[in-house]
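Collaborator request log, item 7. Partner lab (contact: R.S.) asked for a structural prediction of NsdA to inform their binding assays.
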Amino acid sequence: MGGNSGSGTGAGSAAQSSSPADKRPNELLTSWFVRSGWSKGELARQVNRRARQLGANHISTDTSRVRRWLDGENPREPIPRILSELFSERFGCVVSVEDLGLRAARQSPSTTGVDLPWTGPQTVALLSEFSRSDLMLARRGFLGSSLALSAGPSLIEPMQRWLVPGPAAGPHREPDPAASRRVGRLSRPELDLLESTTAMFRQWDAQCGGGLRRKAVVGQLHEVTDLLQEPQPETTTRKLFKVAAELAELAGWMSYDVGLQPSAQKYFVLALHAAKEAGDKPLGSYVLSSMSRQMIHLGRPEDALELIHLAQYGSRDCASPRTLSMLYAMEARAYANMGQPGKCKRAVRMAEDTFAEADEWDEPDPDWIRFFSEAELYGENSHSYRDLAYVAGRSPTYASLAEPLMQRAVELFSEDGEHQRSYALNLVGMATVHLLRREPEQSTVLVEQAMHIAKKVRSERVNTRIRKTVDTAVRDFGDLAEVVHLTDKLAVELPETAEAV
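Returned to partner:
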């Protein structure tokens, strides 16, 4: 825990050194304090209570200490963080340490930008701060309002540092003799439980969409960052970073699924940092593939391709065939959206050939890549050809290439029964192929099936795909009775409403 805070004696001073001439009344803190309606004694009691919850039992604040903070004394950690949490809860919005005038105002890297320090302690601090802010804002309905997306060089160049060896490069770092002697409070069964809980969250996401369990995942991530701030043996720390990386990626994926794009990107970036701390390059490549998928969704296939190439280069010697196949499939999607059919077809073939080697792989795949089944492979490759068809001016040739693959994906997902969101997305994909082939009657049947699933799966991504497909059907075949009926049904069964997360 951070520095001392006491009544001025015993536990030591809570103030950072400053000369009397430099100290001015803290007008920002005073403003928040006055509006809170608390007395100095009540604020002191709340600080002490929160400190005990954090295990900082040495902190003993009183009214005279609160008065000195208001007069301009700058307390040491964890007091600023505690005050931030207390005022955030009081006002129902994130009140940062800077908002309280307790540090020089700066732009917090946890809420803006993606160029973050590649060090373990700062990764933990940023994960903790961002997940806490997310939970606070989600409760009050302001989630994602202060974030901005990064793209182009401002995104790609910081991500390239994932490949740079350094003290945070996992297994390449020098062992810390002191770390091996640390005794953490986590047992092996407890670590196993954290990993199995993450796998359970991932299964729920596949079945129910990102909107139902997103807050639970973010809360679990915040708990894991608390554990990472405690002294742990080196092996435990690396396992915790791996769990944190998987949870952050899943929080990002769920945010992406419900339409919170800036929040999704922030979680993906933090997940990549945590994966590097864990020394898990295949997991890092998986995070980059999720970022790539988001860039395709946002209409930036060039950025998506750069991210996939980073993933392929960084994990080419250690990823399983299933993981490499997924990366090739995402590479094909990027090339398709860039209008490069030759490179797209080559990547599709590489995805198919590499996936065929998955059964011969000696080691079990990690849980995060097990979703990439034969059905997912068919679905991704068919979407690549479908995307090519649109880029090439609604080409019937590429639509014909997409149809048998998409049909097989739909059949496999129907038999699967677990991955309901993927089933719905591929039903919509098949519907778009029929529209490309000017077969609107078949398209409307598939969209209605997807709508039935969408009512049970909380995924704004599914809802958006359905609405866009119906819009296309209306534009091209608006007078057809089946399309008119579908439009009316969409308005009733899948109205546009704010997603509760």
